[in-house]
Amino acid sequence: MTSVDLVVIGGGQSGLATAHVAARGGLRPLVLDASAGPGGSWPAYYDSLTLFSPARFSALPGRPFPGDPDRYPVRDEVVDYLAAYTAALDADVRFGARVQQVTFADGGFVVSTTDGGVVRAPSVVAATGGFGTPFRPALPGLESFTGRVLHAAEYRNADGLAGSRVVVVGGGNSAVQIAAELARVATVSITTRGPLRFQRQRILGRDFHWWLARTGLDASRWGPRLVSGTVPVIDDGRYRAAISDGRPDHRPLPQRFDGGRVVWSDGTTEQVDVVVLATGYRPDLPYLAGTGAVDEAGVPLHDGEMSTVLPGLGFVGLERQRSFASATLRGVGRDAEFVLDRVLRRVGRHAAAAR
Ligand code: FAD
């Protein structure tokens, strides 16, 4: 069985930032990623995805995002950036390596992959993302809806949807972006439980992220505790304008779906072709099942950095793990620094004990 100092599970931005900080600290981590190549989930996001943060606030540690720092990079630029980051990394990165199970015994971890590989390590960082499992809420009647139901994770572009009647469920950035894109070729309603919340992209001539960094709110552990609830839609004005033009229109959640029809909150009904669920994601950590490190819902038990159950198990990239920015390109490196600080101490103790 091979032994390494640190296994990083996931080679998306979270795993890469973790591996970079680990290598800088003198470790040679092993990164195991189930995908065929670099980029994490970015290659699978919808075609028109444009970052909500400018390039200067979208970089991982040690490598600036190339090009004009004030532009908003598109999806494929992020994929290219992550591929270049992977190539430059001083770590052993293995693609096509899906971790099946992590076990903890005698103070260390054994990590097994679906292709039969087994690695032992004193420390493991789970960096498979907070967005691995699409969340599909149980909306009344949706299970027997006869039209097409798509999660935002499956949506790529408007191809094949021109002229359709579409209901988008959800009020976050993806919901509004997808609804506005579809509304150019289809009749679209965006439906939410409460009001849509918007955040102006620019305030007093500066991008919103400049203010987040300047005030310290972005990095603050208090941020997620002070401001709870849904994430606002970051908007340069175009989404509010589209919605006030009714393209898409905004309505309360429907009462129910009935066959191929939607029953709106005012009791009116109409035929619908497609329902898009932009209803978020949950963490994807099935390889920790049975270790006690996740609860019955698969949610990890942690103190913002490390597992509160298994010594030596860290997490990077969970939503609101330490701050608002934990699951973003701009914030994940900062969290990786905190996690690695504790991992390095553990690996050091482990090495000293072995001498
Ligand atoms: P992922 O990119 O999901 O990578 C996880 C990796 O783990 C994958 O490569 C996967 O193959 C691998 N993996 C999973 N399970 C296993 C396993 N068992 N064994 C081995 N490997 C495994 N953030 C921003 O900063 N700006 C944005 O504009 C922005 N837009 C977003 C838009 C959408 C639609 C979504 C969903 C998220 C967005 N985010 C954005 C948030 C975040 O930056 C991305 O979700 C990002 O992909 C998260 O990176 P990650 O490395 O944590 O996870």
Which helices and strands appear, and what pairs or packs with what?
Layout: E1 2-3, E2 6-9, H1 13-24, E3 30-33, H2 75-88, E4 92-95, E5 99-105, E6 108-113, E7 118-121, E8 123-126, E9 133-134, E10 148-151, E11 165-169, H3 173-182, E12 187-192, E13 198-200, E14 202-203, E15 206-207, H4 208-215, H5 223-226, E16 233-235, H6 238-244, E17 249-252, E18 256-258, E19 261-263, E20 269-271, E21 274-277, E22 281-282, E23 313-315, H7 329-354
Parallel strand pairs: 1-7, 2-3, 2-8, 3-4, 8-23, 10-21, 11-12, 11-21, 12-17, 13-16
Antiparallel strand pairs: 5-6, 6-7, 9-22, 14-15, 18-19, 19-20
The protein binds flavin-adenine dinucleotide.
Flavin-adenine dinucleotide binds at residues 9-15, 32-35, 40-42, 45, 49, 51-53, 58, 98-99, 127-129, 131-132, 174, 284, 287, 317, 327-330.
Keywords: Oxidoreductase
Protein name: NAD(P)/FAD-dependent oxidoreductase
Pfam families: Pyr_redox_3 (PF13738)
